[in-house]
Amino acid sequence: MRTSVFKGRVNNRNGGLDGRMVELISRDDAQDRQTAEKATRELVAAGVEAVIGPFTSGMAEVIVPITGAAGIFQVSPTITSMSFYGKDDNLFRINRTTRDNAGDYARVMVGRGQRHIAVAYDTRNRNFTESWLREFHSAVEAQGARVAVAVPYDSQPDTPFAAVIKEMLAARPDSLFFISGALDVARLAQEARKQAPALPIGAAEWAATEQLLDLGGEVVEGLLIVQNYNRDDESPRFREFAEAYFKRFQRLPGYSSVSAYDAATVVLTALKNRRDGETLKAAALRSGPYQGLQQSISFDANGDTQRKVFFTEIRGGRYVLLP
Fold first, then answer.
1. For residue 220, what are the contacts with CB-CB under 8 A and spacing of at least 6?
2. Are 77 and 106 found together in one domain?
3. pLDDT tens-digit map of 75-111
4. Measured between alpha carbons, how far is 204 from 101 in angstroms, rounded to an integer?
5. Quick check: is 321 in a domain?
6. Contact 29, 1 (CB under 8 A)
7. Which residue in 81, 73, 78 sits closest to 94, CA to CA?
């Protein structure tokens, strides 16, 4: 997961502002707390004006206190944990919360007749996964259903996923759900298809990447998963972005790329509009709403926003929108 940073006050594609170019510095937190702390302190020492990132709530636990203490404006494209919601700090979030997503999943799953759901969750990104699980517990119970069992595991190359699925199935659930990244969801789904091929499977939005399709293959067919953007959008604005992205990277954009673009739009607009003596946070609050690739972005006073999501199933190796 990368943390990207801006120095300067300009949009390079349009020739800059007052002759100054944006300098982009990237640091990889490696999904490791010590690495994340070191990388963030390097960015603070470099005197950056804004940070885009991090991409997981677990790393945000480490990074946000450091950037906040330094007074650096930060926009995360993807973090959703309730730990970062409703706080008057320098962090803005492009994404909705785990409460929003878990509540929508509960509504859709219970509406499909799933009332006894077994969950597995990765403790390596504990801040996100435990927040998601808490909200899901509450939302499912409010629908008159329940979480049959919640099985924690620590994502490692040698994690015994067969044993995780076996423990989930011991609770006799009517469906399986994974709060995990794409690689783990693919591995969990593989074991689920071996041990209980008829059970419905689903995964939290964290796994909604191209990697899941590539790694999962047939075992993730039928998996329920939410997207925070519409992959089938045919609007000129989104198609232009997708085509330019494919030309540069030889692959279609995923949710993190779309959200990162929206985050960059916020940062660059705030930099452009900032008045003398004004903080970047104040400029960002004053400059909205912002036109993202697909959605308008409006922040409240705490830098929180709402975002429309799209439920999909994997069918024929692609994410297919549900009606």
1. 185, 186, 189, 201, 212, 213, 314
2. no
3. 999 999 999 999 999 999 999 999 999 999 999 999 9
4. 8
5. no
6. yes
7. 78
Identify the pLDDT of residue 1.
Answer: 39
- Amino acid (one-letter) located at 220: V
175 and 130 within one domain:
yes
The answer to the question of residue 17 being in a domain is yes
CA distance 46 to 119: 42
**Tokens at residue 186, please?**
């693919």
Q: Give the count of domains, the chain.
A: 2
Express each pLDDT in 283-294 by its tens digit.
999 999 999 999
Any domain includes 272: yes
* Paired strand residues for 179: 121
Within this chain, do residues 103 and 139 fall inside the same structural domain, yes or no?
yes
- Whether the model clears a pTM of 0.90, i.e. scores above it, the answer is no
pLDDT exceeds 70 at position 14: no
- What CA–CA distances, in Å, run from 40 to 12, 68, 79, 85? 24, 11, 17, 21
Instruction: Give pLDDT tens digits for 141-194.
Output: 999 999 999 999 999 999 999 999 999 999 999 999 999 999 999 999 999 999
- Residue 7's closest CA among 276, 280, 287, 277? 280
Listed residue (74, 77, 10) closest to 40, CA to CA: 74
In the block, tokens 């660059």 appear at 268
Instruction: Tell me, yes or no, whether 51 and 114 share the same domain.
Output: no
CATH at residue 160: 3.40.50.2300
In a domain, 289, yes or no: yes
Domain end, chosen from 191, 211, 227, is at 227
Q: Cα separations (Å) of 11 from 14, 26, 227, 274?
A: 6, 17, 29, 14
Task: Determine the structural domain holding residue 28 and report its residue range.
Answer: 2-96+255-297
What is the Cα–Cα distance from 97 to 290, expressed in whole angstroms? 19
Structure confidence at residue 22 (pLDDT): 83
- Which of residues 227, 247, 273 is at a domain's end? 227
